[in-house]
Structure formats: C-alpha cells, structure tokens
Queue: 4 jobs
Job 1
Amino acid sequence: MSLNLSFRSKILLSVSGLAILGFSASIGYATWANQSYILEKGAEAAVLQAQALTQNISSPLYEGRDLAESMAVMIATMHERGLKDRDAITAILGDELRKRQRMIGVWTGWEANAFDGRDAEFANRKPDHDATGRYIPYWALSGDKLILDSLVDYDKPGAGDYYLIPKKNNALTFLEPYLYPIEGKNVLMTSIVQPITLKNNPNFVGVAGVDVSLDNIGKTLDQVKPYGNGWLSLVSHEGNWLAHPEKDKITKPAQDLPPEAIAAIKAGQPYTYTDLIPIPMVIASCTSYSRLRLIRIWLRGRCWFRFQNPAC
C-alpha cells in the first residue's frame, strides 16, 4: 500500500512539476511577448513624438533660409537699379534682424570692388568696414541690442568657410553647426548663406547670410522623454552631435554610433538599429535593448537626423 502511495505521489509530483514548468513557460512567454509589445509600442510612440517636433525644430532654420534668400534678392534688385548705397542697405539689414528674434545675426559680404567700385574710399571706416574697404557689414543681436560690426576672416579657410564655401559652390549653403561665444556663453549656431546673383554679371560677387541659434533645438528635445525615460538627439549631415543628453558631446563626431549609421546619415538614408548594450527597463525590472531610429529633416538637399531612443 505504501509502495502504491509512493508511486502515486511520484506521479503527482511529476505531473505537478510539468504543470509548474508549463505554467512558468507560459508566464515567461507572456512576459517576453508583453515586453516585446511594450518595446514596439514605445518605439512607435517615440516616432510619433519625434515627428510632431519636426516643425518646431525646423521652423527657425526655414525662417533663416527664407530670410537669406530674400535679402540676396533685395540687395541684387537695389544694385541692378543703381541703388548702391552702403549705409541704406546696411540699415535695411539691421531692421530685418530686429524683426526676427530667433535670428542672432545678418550680414552681407562682397568681393573686392564688386559692390560699387569704391572700396578704397571706405577702407578702415568703422564699424562695418576693415582695411580693405570691402562691403562686409555684420549685424549681431546681443540681448535686446543690435551691434554693427564687420565680417572677419572671410578669406581664411576654416574660419572663413561661411564665405568661402558658398563662393566655391555658388549655392545656398547650410554651414555645419558650431559653437560661438556670445556674451561669454557658447551658443550652438549655424550660418545659412545665399550667393547674390546679378543679371548683368555672371561672376560671383558676394553673399547674404543669416546666423541662427540652435540652442532651443536641444532644449526642445530635452523636454521629450519617449516612454518615460528615453531621449532624443540630433546628428548633423556631417555626423556630429547637435543635441545629446551628454552635453559635452555636442559638435563632436558621433563616434558611438555604428559606421553604418554614419554612412546612412551622410547618404541621406533612413537607418534603424538595435544597440548591443542592454539598458534598464522601467517595467518588469528587467533589461531590454536600446532601439535607435533616424528621423530625417530635409533642408534644401541638406539632411539632418534626429535619433530617438524609446528606452524599452
């Protein structure tokens, strides 16, 4: 009798063990499926959040582009009609900047004697001319004040790329974003430059440019936390961080991204990948893999990318 009871107990224990194992497997599968569902939904939510931000992020850049183009047309039209008054055009540029608080600088730069043939008369006339006398006024917004100065280093590769690159390409140019000190604080900015075209002169004569602060882009992205503890960041066309939770990475190469992602960025192609390093999940106290997606922002052939990490 005891042997039979022992045998039944073994059967019951085995069946119970199988049931528990099956139940555990079901729970494990359900947990995995639920986590996968949460991950996918979190990624979809991040995509929607990022897409909703596109207009907000792009708006000052489009405004800067439109202003640079309109200034170039305005200056060319006045010039072609014989209105080559430096002070008058400089005053108009200052008024344009005063009306646009999201811009931090407007300017025009001309080749030697290309504006009115009178560079020698204006040599060293401060504040908007240098020793060459070239027409190179620069308006900057400092707080609520407008400051008039002259362009500098416009003939030096590197520092003068804001002038030399549009001159070389003779096309609308979005300069790679850079940090520039304004009132003792580094400001992330870009220059948008439009070459000036004269109907009676096929040669390059000069440019009209606008400086746009990009600081608000980082602040806007910082406010969005996909699925609670995710983050958004922005990468430039050249593969440099423009916005990132680790602020010391801004303007530096995005070397922590895979080479394939950088290649996709420079080629203007979409790219999605899953990071190999697990990160903590808020739900279920487990880990999942970070999924990064690219959202493209096209600006007249120039492509910037916004990375998003839903974090779970």
Job 2
Amino acid sequence: MESNNTYKPSSEAFSRYFAGESTQDELTQINNWANESAENQEELELLRAIWQDVGSVRIEPAEVDTNKAFANVLAKKKAHEQTVPSRSFWNAWKVAAVVLLAVSAVLMMIQEDNDVQLVAESITKVSLSDSTKVTVNEGSTLVYQKNFNTAARKVSLSGEAFFDVARNEEKPFVVQVGEVTVTVLGTSFNIKESEKSVNVAVSTGRVEVKSAFGTEILSAGEQVTVNLDEKELTTANNSTSGTEQYWFSKKLIFAGSDMSNVLEDLESTYQVRINVKNEAILNCKLQATFEDQSIDEILEIISLSQGLTVEQTNEGYILSGEGCDD
C-alpha cells in the first residue's frame, strides 16, 4: 500500500470513493489521508457535497442538467468563499470542474439523437427501454436506441454480450454483428464476435442467425458459429457446464459430467492445455460446481476428488493416476 505521507487521492479515486466502488485498500488510503489534517477532512467533505449535487455518470442514458449542476457548484463556491476560502476548497473546485466537464463530454460522446453508444471498459450491465437486459463484455461496443420507435428493435454489437430480450411479438429484436444478423422475439442468448467468426449460443427461446453463407434457426441449448474465412455455418450443442456465459456468470456446473468433457470445457474457459497420462482418467465422472475459482484451484479439487495428481508444465497441466473403469 502506498504511504500516506505521499498519497493524495486522484479525482478518479474520489469518484470511486463517493460511488461506493473503492477497494478496501483504496478506502483505507483515502480515510487515512483525510485523518491526517483538518484541511484534508474539509476537502473531502466539500467534495462529497459537490458529488451529491453532480451525481455519477450512469451507463444508462440519463437526463443530466449540467447547467443546473454547475450552478449548484458555483453556489457552493460562493458560499464557501464567504466563510473559509482555504486551499482545500480550490483543490475541490478543480476536481468538481473536471467532473462536470467529464459529464458533459460523456453525454455528447454517447448520445446523438436517439442513438447511444456504450463502450464497455469492464463487464457492464445495461437495461434498454423495452426492458431488455444486456451484459456487455469488457472491450465490447453496443449501439442501441434510447427509445425503440421503429418497427423493429435494432442494436449493433462489436465484441461479446449476453442478451435477455423482453418478449414483443410485434417488434422483433435484431442484433447486427458485422455481416451477421441475429433476430428474436423474446429469448436469452450469448453473442461472441472474433476476428474470424461470430458465435451465437441460445439459452432460452428461439433465435434466427442469418449471414451471406446461410441461415440457422436455433433453439435453447444450441449454438452456431459463422466462420467468416471458410464462409460456412457450424452448429453444435451448448456445453452443459455453462462455459458460454462464464465470462460474466463466473460459474461452471458439472453434473455427473465425463472427465473428457470437463477437461475440454476447462481448456476452453481458461485457455490452457490439460493432458492426461492415463486415458482411463477420461472415463471418470465429476459432480461439482465451481464459482469464480482459478484453474489451479479447480484442478487441485478435481485431483483430490478423483485420487489424481496434477503437474504444471510450460505447456499446461498434466493429470496422472489410475483413472476409472469404462
């Protein structure tokens, strides 16, 4: 942890602090900094008051009156100048100005007419005007309408997102991913776009996936991969463990699964190689639920439950042991 003798919270740290999103270390640092002097405490309390007037920027489009917020800050500035015009106030005033400029800039950047562009810097959840809920993966971009006022509910995606679409038989929900079009009435599904493919995995309901290479109608538990290089569509069943949604659910469920399927799902989820010294290991069954655990922890648990040993190498992991009868 950084020494409080040199530590001074940044405007971003203050924002996380007032939004209740600080880590425990950062929370301790800011509180220790505030307790160092009456001036620091005064600055913190002033910033808190300004934050409550300005508010934090929400991902969902909000009607933010920045002129009114700025007027509130000016009023606080004037009132404070009439009492104790300390250096801490001017520090707070600078941070407040930065926050207000950020609010204005974000609104101009993401809101143009009825279109909103969300660029997710981390896994982000957003509710659309039709009550559809979307979880957008880090580094992905979602463009949607603030209000769906057309015959279809259209959004565009670059990257990965999970959609839980509110049913409306009169207005289909359409997701455009490059040259691939996904159309539904009301369902939940995951879309993952990469440089060479687009994968759609359906959790509930039915989904139509259309591209220049063909069209597939998917039901719950099915997925299709549109291979952009090979110009073909490949269908398959979803994993039973939930690998398709692991990026946001952080949960894998194995209900009596064959070890061959378990290791395949773990390789896909954690992007590692797992080999076995004895093919009989692949005959074993696993009944377990893993939630937000590392691959090292998971393989250690599997090894203990199956009487195996695990070894990490430069190429990945190796499981050894007697295994199970076919």
Job 3
Amino acid sequence: MNTEIAIVGTGPFGRAIISAAIDAGHRPRVWGRSETGRQCVRELFDDRVTLCESLEETCAQAGMICLAIPASGFYDVAMALGAWLMPDQVIVHGTRGVSEGFARSSQILRDVTCVRQIGVLGGVMFRQGNHAKLIGGMLASRFDDVQTTVRAMFHLDAGRLHASDDVIGVELCGVMGHVTEIALGLAEGCALDLSSAGVLAAYGLADAARLGVVLGARRETFHGLAGVGELLPRHGSASGRHRALGKQLGQGIALEDALNTIDGEVEGVMTAREAHAFARSHGVHLPLVEAVVLALDGVDHMADVLRTVLCGELAWS
C-alpha cells in the first residue's frame, strides 16, 4: 500500500488533519494557497511535514489525498487534480459547501477526475486553535479500502472515525449544517429563546433529511453523528462564523455589511440559495432553508418568519 499522504489546505481543519497524520507516524506532503496558512504550518510542524510549491508536487505520487479546502475553491482544485491523478488513488474531503447547481464535492470529484475511491469526512469534531486536533467523526465511503486506508494514516487524539457507506447523507449533513447555523444565529439576533433555537435545529435536520432522500441518502444518517455532530458548538470555527452572520441578519444588518465583519468564508450563504433552488425544482418544501433565504434577501420581521417555521409541521419526509 502506498502510504504517502497529501494534504491540501492549511486552515484549522487542514492543520488538524496534518497533526493526525504526523501522530500516526507519517510525514505528509502539504500545499495551500494562503501564505499565512503555510507559515503557520512551518511554525507548528517544522520538518515533520514537506511543504510543497505546487498541487501536482503534493498529490501526484500520494496514495491518499485529503482535501481540507472551502467550497469556493473546490472545483478549480478538482479540475487541476483531474489532469494527473490515477484511478488507484484515494481522495477524502471535509468540505462543507456546494458549487453552482447544488453540486456536492464528491460529485465534482467523480465528474472531473478518474478517482472512484472517494471518502467524505463528516460530523468531524476537532479542537480549535493553532494546535488543532482531530478527535472524532464520520467517514463515509462505498469502498472498504478507503475506510482501511484512512484509519491507517490518521491517529485521532480521542474517539474514532465511525464508518458509513452513505456518502450523500454524510456529505449533506455537513453542507446543510451551515445553513442551520445561520438560522440559529437568526434566532439569537431576533431574541428568540434557547428552546426555540433548539427546535429550529431539529427543523434544520428535517430539511436536510428531506433533501437527502431525494438525492438517494438514507434518512437515518441525519439522526446520527453526521447530522447531530454538525450542530455541536465549535467556537471560532466555520460554525461560529455562520452563527455570527445569522445574528447580524436577525438584527437587521444587511448581508453585505454583515459579511464584511466576518473573517473567513461563510459557505452556508451559497448553500442556502442553491438548496432552495434545487428543492423548488424538485417539489421539496424546506421551511427553514426558505426562512434563511428570506433573511439573506433582507426581509423584515424575521422573528415572525421564524415563528411561522416553528408553528409548521416538523416533517422528515
């Protein structure tokens, strides 16, 4: 087995993956666009990693490639990988967003590369900060070899990666989790109580499950770690950015102004719009997603909109 590991991405999640690979006795090859992220990797890991100058240098000879990058850059990276990857390589990703047309990251990889051994990291929990550590989550793949390979190449600080073959379900839990986080921020900005916010989280899972079933996912996936794990608070992470955006929208601040105050990508904005369009084209009602889109569009009286969601039927199908 080729034990060479390539990691694309030097943000907090990427650094958690790097640490897990090093703790398992590997020296990963790493690439990232951000010079700030690259410098952080140099300072944290020194000669325990190989920092590469190009994507091809990083990934071409690797047995496993882990993509820890935002959705906005995923298609371009996948297209570049498609030029020289081989069918026997393994790719796993933890991207929590979609591309235009509600295209999921695993779908993009299948469309533009020859790799079929694809895995999705979901419900992933990792400690924040410079010394980020991967502590558990889900690994979804239709291939047993992917499960075996990833477990051999990562050491978790605590917990484990639980196996699933529901790639679509685990991927959608992560994607739609950010939309739910915006809704929870909206509830805070509108001064709704914590109990109401908790019920809105259940509506978020129900929306994700209805969408997932249309795409071929299993409904029970959304009731497990992949679904519930995405709603666990992770301060300072993408989760916090989405809540912060929702809170400002709930307070009446315009979307562009709110985004200007947030450092980092807020993938749930595009996800909400793309999910809404996809659901409408397939005749699927997603009440919480619709409420988030209204907030993104600057609709007034968001507290009343959220109360309408809370008064509606909590339907999982």
Job 4
Amino acid sequence: MDVARTDCMVSVVCITYNHENYIRDALESFVNQKVNFPYEILVGDDASTDGTADIIREYEARYPSLVRGIYQTENLFSKGISQEEILFDAARGKYIAYCEGDDYWLDDAKLQMQVDYLEAHPDCAACVGNTIWHYCTSSKPDTDFAQKGDCDFTLADILNDYLYHISTLVVRSELLRDRPEYYYLGLEAYESDATLSWRITLAGKIHYINRVMSLYRYRSNPESMTVAFGHDRILRLNSDIKALQSLAKYTNEEQTKLVQEAILLRKFDLLHEEDRNWEMYKEPYRTILRQKSLSYRIKNLIKCVFPWVRPLYRKWFPPE
C-alpha cells in the first residue's frame, strides 16, 4: 500500500526515544494489521542515543511503501518541542492512530474495526478500546481498564476519569491539526493525552469498544521526565487547573459548568497535597468532602488534629 496515495485512510503515528528494547514490538504490531484500505506508519525518533533509529530504518527498508521514519538530530523534548505535532502535521490519513514506541497493539484487526465504526458513524469523533496495563516494575500484576461494555464517552465522562489509554486511539485527523491553547498547556505538563481527549470530545463522542487492543508499559523508563513530573502531584494539579481554565474559553455554557466543577475538584485535591486539610471544611470544598468515603473523612480529620502524621504517611506510602 503506497503511502504516497492521496486516499490514505489511516496514518499510524508513533513517537519514540530510546525504545530499543520495545520499538520492534510496536512496529510489528503496526505492519501486521489486516485491513482493506491504504495506511501509512510514521515513526518519529527524537535523537535516540541507543539503537532505536537503526531498528526504524530496518523497517523502512523492509516496508518502503508503508513505514516512514522522521529522525531528529537534536532531542526536541528537552527543548520543550513536541514530536507528535510534527507527525500530526505530516500525516496523510483521514484518520490518525496513535501509539508510542514503548507500547504496542495486541489485535491485528484493530484498525479495520475502528475505521469501520467511524465510517459508519460520522457523528463520532474517535474510537478507542481496552488496554492491558503492564507494570514494568512488577509491582502489580497486569490488569486492564475493565469497562463494562461498549459505550460512548463525552467531555463530562473524561474530565475527571482516565477511561482509556491513548495507544488505542483512532481519531479524525483534522481534530489533531487544529490544536488549541489548552493542548499546549497539556504538553508543558506532560498531560497531552488528557488535553487531546478534551479537544476530541468538544467535536463529538469517543466510542469505546470493549475489546483488548493494546498493551501499555507502565514505567518503561523510570528515569523519564514524565515519571518525575507525575510524582510531583502539586505541580501536576496546578498545571491541570491552568489547562482547564484555558479549556473553558472554548466551551459552551453547559460544558463550561462541567469544566468549572473539574477545576474545583483539582483545587480540592491541591488542598490535600499542600496539607491545607482544614480548608476542606469551608465551602465550596466542604460539599466535596461530605461526598468522600467515611475512611477518607476520618483520615482527613486525623491529619488536621495530628499534622505530624502527614510526612510519615508520605514516607511509608510513596507515590508509585
């Protein structure tokens, strides 16, 4: 299938950096898709220092009409530049399928199934599926997202919940070429997965197919900046609030109400992280506190009465 054809149906977008141990699994899962339409595979290597680029070139040579590598000579991520933007703009497909180089697909019918659904449902903006969550640290057994069945996600669903993994995403490509301010705020906070979902659900529903389609390697690189940022809950929550405030500029009246509620929940969590537990007893946070479980409220009261408990808790139960 010639990637130069203008009728390319899907562009598989894969960003990678130092994924020598993983990228072959991803590429194999891409090239082995069983489809009845033309597609392309775009792989962006962010100046890897291991053998990742060599493996990509190997697949370019084996599949010259299918795989296209885009190689950086300097690491863009360290300069605050996103590789995914470059690949989104280079994509020729009607749809974009996203999967990072340390994850891979488990279903060779994935693309066909999702494209068939999107072609039959023009009101749907994207299609996703279930994912195996593999803990590279072996700290927990593999699990999945365990949705109850096929369903549709809206902005209301995804603002406060992580309902699917981006390695299963197939989305109408024009939605990723029009990138609003909150998308860039998400990039700064290493949260572009969330802000992409916001962008998509402003345009339409995300359809979820309850079928395992991918494997996500959790903590494949424990030294990465995204892992370090994820451990800094205060920084992450503040960044989330900033991005949500930007999102509110793009929403209608009903959606704006949902966004404001999401901001309030983040601010509530921020009180918890900053040891400002007494403030949870004041409105508007008191209403949220009342909705928490009894055990949560008891723990919160203990932290208020005995503030020295908090550092001990952090020491005994550090973030994973």
